[in-house]
TrEMBL record:
Keyword Cytoplasm in record: no
Gene3D superfamilies xrefs: Cobalamin-binding domain, Methylmalonyl-CoA mutase
InterPro entries: Acid_CoA_mut_C (IPR006159), Cbl-dep_enz_cat (IPR016176), Cobalamin-bd (IPR006158), Cobalamin-bd_sf (IPR036724), MeMalonylCoA_mutase_a/b_cat (IPR006099), MMCoA_mutase_a_cat (IPR006098)
Species in which this protein is naturally found: Ferruginivarius sediminum
Coiled coil keyword on record: no
Pfam families found in the cross-reference section: B12-binding (PF02310), MM_CoA_mutase (PF01642)
Protein name, entry field: Protein meaA
Family: Belongs to the methylmalonyl-CoA mutase family.
């Protein structure tokens, strides 16, 4: 028996320790120069790859001086307006020895063109570059909201990037099918699996139909598809989800696309663990959450992530500082280098519990995939709002469970009593605040760039780009020429808007609603809505607005759903509205309250703009409420300026919020009478 135990132990060990996954942090803010300094610090701290966060104007194809960019420049990422910015971003970083991931989607062809042009100016050949552009537009329509063009031309642009990179940059991942943001929008594990795989199928089907890739090269294209996955706190379920991804992707590559070589059927994925579950209350608990979520994607060797980036403990409060990001890097390093995790084979092969859960997830995901396939695929399921409605519905159910206490969140709806945290007592508020002057500096730099470039060369390059797009040709080489000619991000975006047009995705509210949680409490709110509506002689009406470029619409959607459940008439027109459009809608619709949702950190300037416009229209008696990731000092300033209420992620009780909104409207209308 002892000999058998020794033999079994020996079978489980590996003769060679595995290499660790690529260690990253998602970073970028303020300016190219400031972000470059941050990248160098993180690389010196042991980070082994770069993951670039771009600001919202860059992601949506606007220059820093565009009206929609106001307040958004440098807030959630680095602003990149032209090749000069891209060169500054990577100054002193050897691009031929660096693996660079860029979280960019609608403008992915442009940012890749800038990256290639920057490398060429450094004398680096294209085939020496390695990295990833996210380039998954389907999930932008469903969750993040940084889309620009309609689905069909957007899918064609994805195909252009794929056809270009597999020939010119063979070590580049041209698309990173991103289920991460689906889970952030409330997706169940089955939905995350199905929607991501449906997206990958839509991408590959489009490439196949596009004719840019010969049939004999198609397996190589399949082999370059990568995924960016989320891992939540339900450890067993999340680990099994990764194994289900591996199994299902192998089957799709083999059966749908006829890929015979196993290496081209490999499920290649990176991960950022769940940010949705990070809490503003007792934020120190987030460290444990992040570690547990990370283990779900590294313990299972047969489905281990190839790259891991972790959020910081304070991201529910604001942007992490360099020290906060270093803490997340150290967590990865401890697991990779101090434990014996990488010395053993897969720990879960043969486990009946794991196999049963993987089977269950695969069956449910396949059922959902078949449903989407019958609709015509992922693009059709965007246009008919099917996937968006399912996400809004799933997120509403998640919030219902938290609000009712059915799902325990430590420090939020249970064990909320807490000692003061020394981590949150710093003079800087324990997070990084972007200097408002950085936006003005970026605009000034942009104007200087335009004044000093060769306008004739930029104009000619843009005309060549538009011609290529209009004729259906691949736009990558013309985009690279635009980069070299000094074209700006907004000019590239506007050129393609002229050819392809713009798009507004379905909001997904549809028939979602009618929740019966906490029936007594909601019945009380409904009764109050009826009373105030009766006094006013018409139904209470709420306008839910998303000013600026922030496309994270989860909060706005859930407020709209819950307000409708409470009996309000709700006006919600989706994302990316100017303050002028929001105030115009308030006037035209005759609303009783305006709710603004802003998660990008641009709340101060955008809320001030809305308030000033309401006053100029004689609507200052309409109360304004604001929700988002809003520091306490900013909340105080907005309330002093007349905002009726400010809600942050710690305000999870949606029914209580609705009760407060009714009281706010009641007081405001009585005072105005």
């Amino acid at each position: 028996m002892a000999e058998e135990r020794r033999s079994a132990q020996k079978d489980g060990e590996q003769s060679v320790r595995d290499k660790p996954w690529m260690i990253r942090t998602y970073a970028g803010h303020s300016s190219a120069q400031a972000s470059n300094a941050l990248y160098r610090k993180n690389l010196a701290a042991g980070q082994t790859g770069l993951s670039v966060a771009f600001d919202l104007p860059t992601q949506t194809g606007y220059d820093a001086d565009h009206a929609l960019a106001r307040g958004e420049v440098g807030k959630v990422g680095v602003p990149i307006g032209h090749i000069g910015d891209m060169q500054a971003l990577f100054e002193g970083i050897p691009l031929d020895r660096m693996n660079t991931s860029m979280t960019i989607n609608a403008t992915a062809p442009w940012l890749l063109a800038l990256y290639v042009a920057t490398a060429e100016r450094k004398g680096i050949a294209r085939d020496k570059l390695s990295g990833t552009v996210q380039n998954d537009i389907i999930k932008e329509y469903l969750s993040r909201g940084t889309y620009i063009f309609p689905p069909q031309p957007s899918m064609k642009l994805i195909g252009d990037v794929i056809a270009f990179t597999y020939r010119e940059i063979p070590k580049w991942n041209p698309v990173n099918v991103c289920s991460y943001h689906l889970q952030e929008a409330g997706a169940t594990p089955q939905q995350e699996l199905a929607f991501a795989l449906a997206t990958a199928q839509a991408v590959l089907d489009g490439v196949k139909a596009g004719g840019q890739v010969p049939e004999e090269d198609f397996p190589r294209v399949v082999g370059r598809i990568s995924f960016f996955v989320n891992a939540g706190l339900r450890f067993i379920t999340e680990m099994c989800k990764m194994r289900a991804f591996v199994r299902l992707w192998d089957e799709i590559a083999r059966e749908r696309y006829g890929v015979e070589e196993a290496k081209f059927r490999r499920f290649r994925y990176g991960v950022q663990v769940n940010s949705l579950g990070l809490t503003e209350q007792q934020p120190e608990n987030n460290v444990y959450r992040i570690l547990l979520e990370m283990l779900a994607v590294v313990l299972s060797k047969d489905a281990r992530a190839r790259a891991v980036q972790l959020p910081a403990w304070n991201e529910a409060m604001g942007l992490p500082r360099p020290w906060d990001q270093q803490w997340s890097i150290r967590l990865q390093q401890i697991v990779a280098y101090e434990t014996d995790l990488l010395e053993y084979g897969d720990l879960f092969t043969g486990s009946p519990v794991v196999e049963a859960k993987v089977d269950e997830l695969c069956a449910a995901a396949c059922e959902e995939l078949d449903r989407i396939e019958r609709m015509g695929g992922a693009v059709a399921a965007v246009d008919n709002a099917y996937m968006k409605e399912r996400l809004v519905e799933a997120n509403a159910e998640r919030l219902r469970r938290i609000e009712s206490g059915e799902q325990t969140i430590v420090g939020v709806n249970a064990y909320a009593e807490s000692e003061p945290s020394p981590l949150t007592t710093g003079a800087d508020g324990s997070f990084l605040a972007v200097d408002p002057n950085d936006e003005a500096a970026q605009i000034e730099s942009l104007h200087r760039w335009r004044a000093e470039r060769d306008d004739a060369a930029a104009t000619a390059a843009l005309e060549a780009l538009k011609t290529a797009a209009a004729e259906g040709r691949n736009i990558m080489e013309p985009s690279i020429q635009c980069a070299h000619a000094g074209v700006t991000t907004g000019e590239w975006g506007d050129a393609l808007r002229q050819v392809y047009g713009e798009y507004r995705a379905p909001t997904g509210l549809g028939g979602v609603g009618g929740h019966a949680e906490a029936p007594v409490r909601m019945a009380d709110v409904r009764q109050r809505v009826e009373e105030v509506s009766g006094r006013l002689g018409r139904r209470l009406k709420m306008l839910v607005g998303k000013p600026g470029l922030d496309g994270h619409s989860n909060g706005a959607e859930q407020i709209a759903v819950r307000a409708r459940d409470a009996g309000f008439e709700v006006v919600y027109e989706g994302i990316r509205l100017t303050p002028a459009q929001i105030v115009g809608a308030a006037l035209e619709e005759g609303v009783h309250v305006v709710g603004l949702s802003i998660l990008s950190g641009s709340h101060v300037s955008l809320v001030q703009d809305v308030m000033q416009r309401l006053e100029r229209q004689g609507l200052s008696d309409i109360p304004v409420i604001v929700g988002g990731i809003i520091p306490e000092e900013d909340a105080k300033a907005m309330k002093a300026a007349g905002v009726a209420a400010v809600y942050t992620p710690k305000d999870y009780d949606m029914t209580a919020i609705m009760a407060e909104v009714v009281d706010i409207v009641d007081r405001a209308t009585r005072e105005a009478a």
